[in-house]
Amino acid sequence: MSATVTLAEKPTLTGKLVLLRPVGVADLPGLTELVTDPEVRRLTGSHASFDVKALEWWYATRAEHDDRLDLAIVERATGEYVGEVVLNELDRNNLSCSFRIALIGARAFGRGLGTEATRLILGHAFETVGLNRVTLEVYDFNPRARHVYEKAGFVHEGTQRQALRWEDAWVDAHSMAVLADEWVEHRGHPAVRG
């Protein structure tokens, strides 16, 4: 089975609040806002600076990859790009991958958009792709995200002490994972229903 596990299919996933669809060059204004938002940069520990041409190339080439899935998070009520969700670092032999999500600051936080996007992408990872394990890292100063991940079934597996240097302070990173059988238990839980 492991030889056939792929992220080549770039689906559109629909929930009540959000639509997840393949990213494209048309999403460049939203991506630019995302990667330059000071709060998003802090929560994701992003020190890198980005230029528009590099961002344009990035979104233009995501469909070519069978080892990652980059989907735009679009708020259904407004049709606006509000972030992205990504499955990457696919390990076909071990049926696992990494997960990350980023939402554009204040206009997307606290409204259930990230919770639903997380639920949708995990459903795809486990039920369609056939993965057994999805992992992530979350920084200690992002308890809101950690709470969302726990609601979706992620379990804390360890702490990488002082993994990030941010504004002259050391920040721990927490490793979390959810397994396919744990997802089955959480997918119907009221806290993760769309």
TrEMBL record:
It comes from the Bacteria. Its EC number is 2.3.-.-. Keywords: Acyltransferase, Transferase. One of its GO terms (molecular function) is acyltransferase activity. Residues 18-177 form the N-acetyltransferase domain. InterPro entries: Acyl_CoA_acyltransferase, GNAT_dom. Gene3D superfamilies: 3.40.630.30. Pfam families: Acetyltransf_3 (PF13302). It comes from Micromonospora sonneratiae. This is GNAT family N-acetyltransferase. The lineage of its organism: Bacteria, Bacillati, Actinomycetota, Actinomycetes, Micromonosporales.
